[in-house]
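Dear colleague,

Thank you for sharing your sequence with our group. We've completed the structure prediction you requested, and as agreed, I am returning the results in plain text so they can be pasted directly into your records. Please verify that the sequence below matches your submission; if there's any discrepancy, let me know and we will rerun it promptly.
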Amino acid sequence: MLGVASFLLVDLHALIMAVPLPPGEPPPELPPPALLKLASAIQPAVITTLAVAIGCWLSGKVGLHSPAAEAAANGEPFIAKLRPQILPGVIAGLASGVAIVATWVVAKPFFSAEFITRAEDFNKFMPAITRFLYGGFTEELLLRWGFMTFLVWGLWRLFQKGEGTPKAFYLVAAIFVSALAFGAGHLPLASMLAGGLTVPLVIYVITANSIFGIAAGFLYWRRGLEAAIIAHMSVHVVLITAIYLAI
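Please find the predicted structure tokens below.
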């Protein structure tokens, strides 16, 4: 919930007003800033709660784990469970961040100058603490702990009748589906900033956002949820650096 609360630091009024409108359309009438922030926090809080409940209920059934959190919940030393996840998480996160930045550099010539300016300005509205807490923790609870776990469980129940250990194919399929869903979830915002979707924009948005999603999914499967969280935070170290350097 710290991730959800960190979203309150975003200037939502300025963010919404920065989204371009169709010609001739008046600016939207917005509620008071305090009410707008409260409303923006309720939805992710509810969805995160649901994702956490799903993960707690189903993860153990399909062999997925959050080793450090489970150790802490059982009153055991959690550092020993966290330590093996740190280095893989940092390496995968930094590598994914570099790949995302490289994808942006390659794709920029296919975008209009207006979209590039709007995208760069939009990035400045997101505080670093929100990137680390909401992106690092909350999104991993939503996409890996909740959504990916549910997909694996669903495939396991449907095709294996809930017997034995889920086949590796089901885990790989869930990794790719959850990564693509994360990428596709960014298309509405990209469309608003660009004034409509184009083929290069769709390819870029889904590719750039799926790169890390795939890496995080494998980390969750092979190492644990904390590794995916560490990786997500490491990605934002690279992205914040790229924004600072105006890459």
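Summary note from our side: The chain has one domain: 2-244.

Kind regards,
the structure core
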